Structures are given as C-alpha cells and as structure tokens.
Amino acid sequence: MRNMGNMNKMMKQVQKMQKNMAKLQEELKEKTVEATAGGGVVKAIASGRKQLVKIEISPEVVDPDDIEMLQDLVLAAANEALQKAEDMVATEMEKVTGGINIPGLY
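RE: above sequence
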C-alpha cells in the first residue's frame, strides 16, 4: 500500500509539472531575444518559439556591390538569435522540470 501512496504522490507531481510546462510554453511565445552582427548594423529578434520575428538592417550597411557581406551579417545575427532563443527555452524549462532531462520535451 505504501508504494501506491508514493505512486499517487509522483503522479500529482508529474501533473503539476505538465501544467507548469504548458503555462511556460504560452509565456515563451511572448518572450524574445535579440542578437546583432557587424557592430549592431544587423539585428535579429527571435521568439521563445525559436522563430525569427524580426530582422533590422541599418541602411548604411546596404552596399549593392557587396551583397555577400550583408547576407553573412544577416545569417550571423539570425543564427545567434536562434541559439539565444534555444538557450532561453532550455533555462526556463529547467526551472519547471527541476533539471530532469526528458527527451523531446522542448
């Protein structure tokens, strides 16, 4: 019988964690992170859903004779923003799960 009590307690903890994770996932939709490249001439903003939501490019960096540099700056800023979003989500999820690694969770 004691094992049943422990099982019930564990199930309640799992249900609470699931509820907290669902709430966190909703909150993460609204959170953003920002990354820049080229000393700030290109800015990428990503959401907690790990999607780019905005790219800003300063006019002075737009050089029709050097499109490749602009592409590289956009790529660098976008990749950094997505990595920051990934890190933010992992940090927030760790708070909810207590550091338990559940594959495929986020």
